[in-house]
User: Which sequence fits this backbone?
DNA sequence: TTGAAAGCGCTAACAA
DNA sequence: TTGTTAGCGCTTTCAA
């Protein structure tokens, strides 16, 4: 059986109280006693039962992450990367990371509710925030700690980290405009998603700066998967007057766009410029390499996690609202428009 | 504050024991009393504190998953998919999923150790098993519950699910041989990884069946990332007598191979056949679509999770050794060899 | 400097 | 059918 604090106490012939204090380095323990206890504990391979500690502490030392995924076969690098960012930071700060998946919808709030009511987590990290986000509304209403990747339309205010998608898309627009593109199509993400609006506005405004008006027929709604990029690009490219550039709202869809174009015999770059958003690792090694906007998801995960844990531990400094500036990554998938 | 079982007991004027029993649907409680209790609990929004339950039960109701990733920027769809498979099954069976990441090495066993000693998890799921796998050795030595995705060289036996990579690669070899390829290169995974050996053997044997001997110079070791597929393919294709087909040990590297080939002006399919392994969602929508071997990672995750929970709950039926039969998915990245 | 005792919220053996 | 009591492993007041 596992060795408990009781065993250690028995071994050194002291009370468990003293042992506990020694192990926590309280200074009202005789240094020699302390040493003796620590040694004994180490020898016996004692390690505190975290369940017991947590029950006593009334804190789960655990943060929750519910991945909002529709399909079971989800392969979005976004998730693995933010997971790593959050996970590593959590580990560093002594917290566990509890992960579950749940498609947006009825069930979703229930999932959060269960986790809260069972006292299984102390706070959540919300990803892929939506314009009207029931998760955020719910957590605010419960006054439960959370941080979010992305702003939302919520009346109330909360701690978040976001990337300036508006600026990001403006950079894309500018880049494309300077290359001479005037007929640009785009494959957006679902309008539920909060960043969609920012990116769309940025794209529009950016193009407007160059007197380019986006043709509404060239706007398609995707779902962030490669498949949807592929399908939508097909439709776009088969139109009578197809775009010379397609702006995808994430890298995965951009890959789909490239595939579709190539399947139709177009040379991406030359015949059609394609841009993504995220700069996932693959973007550098696609053919052609993808022009995109960097989004330091790993780092953001870490920031969100750290902010959250500070909130939980009560050493929060207000509600940070951090908006990161994106960078344009110019690669080979965009070229000057052909005449 | 949260409502506890004590509050409920007070409300209905009964002992907490009775409340506990009623809530667990014991049949030694007066039906009317039971009803009254259940109602009161619902009204008060009572939900048991799982920390307390777990402490008492001496079980964390949690399974651990330590993702063995080297780079923080890991975007392997494999991980997100198995995560979903495990997570959904765990949720269904009332278990939490604790995720952490740790690169293989010194630190790794420490991570497992901490989780075990703190009694934070009841079992682990091991992924990406290695030929001599310290994780498996350690868990066996601790007699701690786990299931693994993949066999290993361990003397002892343990519960696993694996896909028959030997057969999978044989299918690939046969497919390529029938297309007339005789000069085939390959980009393997690290030889530490257990499946590497099976796949390699399958490839060799499969080719041998068609009297094809693989040129040792055409074998490169990759690390399962797109980048390594890209770099290795470049080298392979720049050789004086380049291969007409390249077999990558996973889809991600296969994409890298395609990018490299295309960058060199080759038409994948026509000038160079490329195969992958995994059939990740993207494989269908790359250009050209990728010939590969399916591996139902999501399902495997679920199986591993279910097996593990059965073991934990003591209703295990021995140590299942499941080896799934793969299927060849023929797509456009492979064509008959040119003369 | 140390220990006894209470209590975190819950379950379960035993008694009534 | 219900309640009393002990205890899961730990921390922390309070008293000695």
Assistant:
């Amino acid at each position: 059986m596992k060795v408990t604090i009781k065993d250690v106490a028995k071994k050194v012939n002291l009370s468990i109280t003293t042992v506990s204090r020694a192990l926590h380095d309280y200074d009202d323990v005789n240094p020699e006693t302390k040493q003796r206890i620590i040694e004994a504990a180490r020898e016996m391979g004692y390690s505190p039962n975290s369940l017991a500690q947590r029950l006593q502490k009334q804190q789960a030392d655990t943060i929750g992450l519910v991945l909002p995924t529709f399909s079971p076969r989800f392969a979005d690098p976004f998730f693995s990367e933010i997971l790593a960012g959050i996970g590593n930071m959590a580990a560093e700060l002594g917290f566990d990371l509890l992960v579950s998946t749940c498609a947006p919808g009825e069930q979703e709030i229930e999932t959060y509710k269960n986790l809260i009511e069972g006292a299984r987590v102390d706070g959540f990290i919300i990803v892929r925030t939506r314009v009207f986000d029931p998760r955020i509304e719910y957590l605010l209403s419960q006054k439960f700690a959370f941080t979010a990747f992305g702003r939302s339309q919520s009346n109330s205010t909360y701690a978040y980290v976001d990337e300036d998608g508006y600026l990001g898309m403006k950079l894309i627009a500018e880049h494309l405009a300077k290359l001479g593109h005037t007929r640009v199509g785009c494959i957006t993400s679902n309008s539920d998603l909060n960043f969609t609006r920012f990116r769309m506005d940025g794209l529009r405004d950016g193009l407007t700066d160059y007197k380019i008006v986006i043709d509404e027929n060239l706007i398609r709604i995707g779902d962030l998967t490669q498949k949807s990029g592929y399908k939508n690009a097909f439709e776009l490219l088969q139109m009578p007057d197809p775009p010379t550039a397609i702006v995808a709202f994430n890298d995965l869809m951009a890959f789909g766009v490239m595939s579709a174009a190539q399947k139709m015999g177009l040379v991406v770059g030359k015949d059609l410029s394609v841009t993504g958003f995220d700069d996932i690792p693959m973007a550098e090694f696609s053919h052609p390499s993808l022009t995109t906007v960097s989004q330091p998801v790993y780092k953001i995960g870490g920031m969100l996690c750290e902010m959250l844990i500070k909130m939980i531990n009560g050493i929060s400094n207000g509600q940070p609202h951090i908006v990161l500036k994106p960078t344009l990554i110019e690669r080979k998938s965009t070229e000057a428009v052909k005449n």
About this structure: Residues 14-18, 21, 28-30, 33, 52, 54-58, 119 of chain B lie near DNA strand D (CB under 10 Å from a C1'). Chain B has a mean pLDDT of 94. The radius of gyration of chain B is 26 Å. Residues 218 and 239 of chain B are 9 Å apart (CA to CA).
